[in-house]
Specification:
- There is one protein chain.
- By secondary structure, the chain is of the alpha+beta class.
- The protein folds into four domains: about 1-125, no CATH class; about 140-165 and about 175-235 and about 355-475, DNA-directed RNA polymerase, subunit 2, domain 6 (Dna-directed Rna Polymerase Ii 140kd Polypeptide, Chain: B, Domain 6, Beta Barrel), CATH 2.40.270.10; about 235-355, OB fold (Dihydrolipoamide Acetyltransferase, E2P); about 535-585, RNA polymerase alpha subunit dimerisation domain (DCoH-like), CATH 3.90.1800.
- The strands form ten sheets. A six-stranded mixed beta barrel has the order 12-26-13-24-23-30.
- Helix 7 runs parallel beside helix 8.
- The radius of gyration is 35 Å and the shape is extended.
Length: about 600
């Protein structure tokens, strides 16, 4: 007897589990049992698992009977004529969806030629094994799975045309690539997914070589002339939002230029871009700390009597200003109402982003890298026919990663550009590399994609041939302008007196345990005294009881709240965080006694 479980709950037992499982599948294909149900016979444990709950990943496969797929040419012709639909094939039991468990009982053929009598299912197409973004990677079956997966993730972060109506949308933190192109090397999924209507990259000439060590560690070297012509040029948009909120007692926020007697008034210079209504005008060029929307609010804490005698001076300044490190041009201003019926002001700011040192670029094969150097066209290496590459890719990124698809796309892109056609790089159904080589040879180039190149600085011919071709490159949203962060002095937290955290708050850069170890290893341990000096404080300590004493600066008097006046009190230098710990121990009625030694 074998136990049967439905969605993990025991529902009964069967004598012949294999026969029972097969009967359930036959009934499901006939449409008697729900097509959403999956059954799995676990031979090792000897029980049957049935699932029909939500949240399972399932994929479609063609049912195979006696070594032949049930899907016939007749079905395909009817599908093409729109006489039947995909869901009709599922109802007829020609195609069924399997989940991860039932797949364990299935023997799936890769292609029709591989079918034997033992097979139970056939792939619709090998492409169906991977997801949407992964299927956009050309020649993916020539690279390791890990790299293809990274390539898939990179495409999600690439800049492109995410929506045609972007000028009137108010989306948070978005980028638009100014001149996106359709890739030369495509897969069938580019057509199916309408990728060509919203591309997110550019076809560029790439040479595989080192350049003075500036493309070491995955960095890339970019041609300045290519950037001037628009390579990787994008626009960054972000909105600033202010709402006139209502408070109890009839008090409201007010969007206007704040009066000079308002609490927290900045300066006239900060409000210089505001118009009479307190809102900035479109196309104004703004930078950090400039006020975009002027706003005043009622005081935070009000007693019941204060509501009736509010003077204008008691209102507080709550304007929306550009944060630290931000700049741009006001794109457009929207005045509307929120869902609560309050007045809502939205201001969209745009900033043109031209590729710079530290910006991230990637091909579709997981070969990502940051810009290490931007070189004048005159200093770039050039081919015998006078072509200068847009980007120089380091050859050291290939051996350990084994991304052969990256190299094949370089040749494929070259053939496509020269013969003005698109190259098919669909997973497991690609244009063969041999065919590309022959075509490249017939176009007057070497079949291996290499060319004689010359040093752009000295004009000398390189002793080796350089691999050069066309490839689809993408600019990623990780730009150095959004991430660059440094600080010497700045704001501190009220509680701990340590620097604030994060780039937006002008925070400090944390020096952790590992960084400490590197200083010690370098024999520079005294440097730590300077590094860990952020919250240094000097406090008086009573020598008698070891508690923190009191220093009255006005009367120039030192005394201990426990021992009185006639005790020796000395100042010591500690971190404020430690002083805080002492205070917290006192609140727990623990006596933290500090025993001071003579520092001489």
């Amino acid at each position: 007897m074998s136990e049967v479980y439905l969605n993990g709950k025991f529902v009964g037992a069967v004598e012949n589990p294999a026969e029972f499982t097969e009967n359930v599948r036959i009934e499901r294909r006939k449409g008697i049992i729900s097509e959403n149900l999956n059954i799995y016979y676990d031979k090792a444990i000897g029980n049957v698992q049935i699932s029909d709950n939500k949240g399972r990943l399932r994929r479609p496969l063609i049912v195979v009977k006696d070594g032949q797929p049930i899907l016939t040419e007749d079905h395909i012709k009817k599908l093409q004529k729109n006489e039947i639909s995909f869901s009709d094939l599922i109802k007829q039991g020609v195609i069924e969806y399997l989940d991860a468990a039932e797949e364990e009982n299935a023997f799936i053929a890769f292609s029709r030629e591989d079918l034997t009598k033992v097979h139970t299912h056939l792939e619709l197409t090998p492409l169906a094994m991977v997801g949407l973004c992964t299927s956009l990677v050309p020649y993916a079956n020539f690279s390791p799975g890990a790299r293809i997966s990274i390539g898939s993730k990179n495409q999600k972060q690439a800049l492109g045309m995410y929506a045609i109506n972007f000028p009137i949308r108010m989306d948070m933190d978005v980028n638009i690539l100014q001149t996106p192109q359709i890739p030369i090397v495509q897969s069938v999924m580019h057509e199916v997914s309408n990728y060509n209507k919203h591309p997110s990259g550019q076809n560029i000439v790439v040479a595989v070589m080192s350049y003075k060590g500036y493309n070491v560690e995955d960095a890339v070297v970019i041609n300045k002339a290519s950037i001037d012509r628009g390579l990787g040029r994008s626009t960054y948009y972000r909105p600033a939002i202010a709402e006139e909120l209502r408070y109890s007692g009839g008090l409201t926020d007010e969007i206007s230029i704040p009066d000079k007697d308002v609490k927290g008034y900045k300066s006239e210079k900060d409000y210089k871009f505001l118009e009479k209504d307190g809102i900035i005008s479109p196309e104004a060029k703004v930078k950090e700390d400039n006020v975009i929307i002027g706003k005043t609010s009622p005081p935070r804490f009000l007693s019941s009597m204060d509501q009736y005698n509010l003077a204008p001076s008691s209102r507080r300044e709550s304007s929306v200003a550009l944060k630290h490190g931000e700049q741009g041009i006001v794109d457009f201003v929207l005045i509307t109402e929120s869902s609560e019926g309050n007045r809502l002001i939205q201001v969209k700011i745009r900033d043109q982003r031209i590729p710079e040192l530290g910006d991230k670029f990637t091909s579709r094969h997981g070969q990502k890298g940051v810009v290490g150097l931007i070189v004048d066209q005159a200093d770039m290496p050039f081919t015998a026919s006078g072509i200068t590459p847009d980007l120089i890719f380091s050859p050291h990124g290939i051996p350990s990663r084994m991304t052969i698809s990256h190299l094949i796309e370089l040749i494929g892109g070259k053939v496509g550009a020269l013969s003005s056609r698109y190259i098919d790089g669909t997973l497991f159904d690609v244009e063969p590399e041999e065919k590309l080589r022959k075509e490249l040879l017939s176009l007057g180039f070497r079949e291996d994609g290499c060319e004689t190149m010359y040093n752009g600085v000295t004009g000398e011919q390189f002793e080796v041939n350089i691999f050069i071709g066309d490839i689809y490159y993408m600019k990623l949203k990780h730009m150095v302008a959004n991430k660059i962060h440094a600080r010497a002095r700045g704001p501190i937290q009220l509680l701990t007196r340590q620097p604030t955290e994060g780039r937006a708050k002008e925070g400090g850069l944390r020096l952790g345990e590992m960084e400490k170890d590197t200083f010690v290893a370098h024999g520079a341990s005294l440097l730590l005294k300077e590094r860990f000096d952020a919250d240094r404080t000097v406090i008086p300590i009573c020598e008698e009881c070891g508690m923190v004493a009191i220093h009255d600066k006005f009367k120039n008097r030192l005394f201990c709240s426990v021992c009185g006046d006639n005790v020796e009190i000395n100042f010591i230098e500690i971190s404020y965080a430690f002083k805080l710990l002492l205070d917290e121990l006192k609140s727990l009625t623990v006596h933290p006694k500090l025993v001071l030694k003579n520092k001489y």
